[in-house]
């Protein structure tokens, strides 16, 4: 497999534009700028590239929804608001190779005939944003941005936008509100951003990893890209592994690599004396997979065969040193804090889910609480304004199914008897954090 996203990571510092071009950077633009946009879009669509932010939707198909006669200005928004627990792939490219992002933005913007691109960056990545801003200035000085790029009659500006924070900013319409200076609440859809986005103009929103693949697909071809994957998948992906493994980190591998290979070969396997209980395959808002699922290919159609999803490819490992219910409470502490508070099912429902889970840990739960927790999840899941709460409930709903006997044990034992269990203050005081 040819590494693309991490091909320059071995350098001790991010490459400046001269070093980047000497290493082959921006060469793809020779085969993109000036070419018929319709043909480039068809190539991208036929390549099989799918959105790397978690949705896994066909990138070329999504872009084809932009009307040919769409009014200008047209905006491209690159989502680098990486705040999902267990996900840290995007920041690697930001900090280690910012010109790869810019090359992807230029190529993508040309296809979409975008007039301006915004790169929306998580607030904690301030140093990375500064490095990207410097790279943008280098690209502009080299004539790769600005007016009449390469005598094509096409203009492009890039704006590096640092987020004020909050996980909800990663939701594409909340992100648009944040750029416009409003509170980061999601918008109603339809209209979808591709028809009416930033300031009412056509706007395409994609994850940064997706954007980085675009120029290399168009430069090296469909066959090359598809050969980078394995087990029926196309392309590469930066997988991330966190939790009790010997070598936690990030690994650019063929999309479709099995979970077993990622965890036990590249991440070094579990710590000595530990046993795998389960793992989240794609960040905190995905469903649990079990040890029996280790040989499932990690691509967009693999985890769904066992009721999970690939998400960001950020694998969070859970071993026998943890109580799974404690693990779920920890996740809910994050999601209850990060809710934007716009809709009642999310704002009030998620804290109540957390409260219900804590009852099992403190010994206050009985059999009716299992039914209450399931009913609560079933009410919240389809009745929220955006996908935030459904995502938050994915590990809870799957955890209740896959660790059901554990919930019964907590009831029978009048609480958690796992050696690692340390009740939180909220759980002890029986508080609901509304």
UniProtKB/TrEMBL annotation:
Protein name according to UniProt: NADH-quinone oxidoreductase subunit F
Name of one Pfam family that matches: Complex1_51K
Organism for this UniProt entry: Shewanella surugensis
Leader sequence segment: none
Keyword Transmembrane helix applies: no
Domain (NADH-ubiquinone oxidoreductase 51kDa subunit iron-sulphur binding) ranges: 325-370
PANTHER family xrefs: NADH-QUINONE OXIDOREDUCTASE SUBUNIT F
Similarity remark: Belongs to the complex I 51 kDa subunit family.
Gene (name only): nuoF
Lineage per the UniProt record: Bacteria, Pseudomonadati, Pseudomonadota, Gammaproteobacteria, Alteromonadales
Gene3D superfamilies: 3.10.20.600, 6.10.250.1450, NADH-ubiquinone oxidoreductase 51kDa subunit, NADH-ubiquinone oxidoreductase 51kDa subunit, iron-sulphur binding domain
Keywords for the protein's UniProt record, in alphabetical order: 4Fe-4S, Iron, Iron-sulfur, Metal-binding
Needed cofactors: FMN
Domain of life: Bacteria
Ligase listed as a keyword: no
InterPro entries xrefs: NADH-UbQ_OxRdtase_51kDa_CS, Nuo51_FMN-bd, Nuo51_FMN-bd_sf, Nuop51_4Fe4S-bd, Nuop51_4Fe4S-bd_sf, Soluble_ligand-bd
């Amino acid at each position: 497999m040819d590494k693309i996203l991490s091909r320059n990571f071995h350098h001790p510092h991010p490459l400046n534009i001269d070093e980047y071009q000497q290493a082959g950077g921006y060469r793809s633009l020779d085969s993109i700028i000036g070419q018929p946009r319709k043909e480039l879009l068809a190539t991208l669509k036929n390549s099989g590239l799918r959105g790397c932010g978690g949705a896994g939707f066909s990138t070329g198909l999504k872009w084809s929804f932009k009307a040919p006669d769409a009014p200008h200005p047209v905006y491209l928004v690159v989502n680098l608001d990486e705040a999902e627990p267990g996900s840290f792939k995007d920041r690697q490219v930001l900090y280690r190779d910012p010109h790869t992002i810019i090359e992807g933005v230029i190529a993508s913007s040309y296809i979409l005939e975008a007039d301006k691109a915004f790169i929306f960056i998580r607030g904690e990545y301030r140093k990375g944003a500064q490095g990207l801003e410097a790279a943008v200035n280098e690209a502009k000085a080299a004539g790769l941005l600005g007016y009449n790029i390469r005598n094509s009659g096409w203009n492009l500006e890039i704006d590096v936008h640092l987020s004020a924070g909050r996980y909800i900013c990663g939701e594409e319409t909340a992100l648009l509100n944040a750029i416009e200076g409003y509170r980061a609440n999601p918008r109603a859809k339809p209209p979808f951003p591709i028809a009416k986005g930033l300031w009412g103009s056509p706007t395409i929103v994609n994850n940064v990893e997706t954007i980085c693949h675009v120029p290399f697909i168009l430069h090296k071809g469909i066959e090359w890209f598809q050969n980078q994957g394995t087990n029926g998948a196309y392309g590469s992906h930066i997988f991330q592994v966190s939790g009790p493994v010997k070598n936690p980190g990030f690994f650019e591998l063929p999309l479709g690599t099995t979970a077993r290979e990622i965890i036990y070969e590249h991440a070094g396997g579990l710590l000595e004396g530990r046993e795998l209980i389960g793992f989240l395959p794609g960040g905190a808002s995905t469903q649990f997979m079990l040890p029996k699922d280790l040989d499932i290919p990690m691509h967009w159609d693999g985890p769904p065969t066992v009721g999970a999803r690939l998400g960001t490819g950020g694998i969070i490992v859970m071993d026998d040193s943890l109580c799974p219910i404690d693990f779920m409470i920890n996740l809910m502490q994050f999601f209850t804090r990060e809710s934007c508070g716009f809709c009642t099912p999310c704002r009030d429902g998620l804290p109540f889910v957390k409260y219900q889970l804590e009852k099992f840990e403190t010994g206050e739960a009985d059999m009716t609480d299992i039914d209450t927790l399931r009913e609560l999840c079933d009410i919240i899941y389809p009745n929220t304004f955006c996908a935030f709460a459904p995502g938050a409930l994915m590990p809870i709903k799957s955890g209740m199914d896959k660790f059901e006997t554990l919930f019964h044990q907590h009831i029978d034992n009048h609480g958690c008897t796992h050696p690692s269990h340390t009740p939180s203050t909220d759980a002890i005081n029986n508080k609901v954090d509304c």
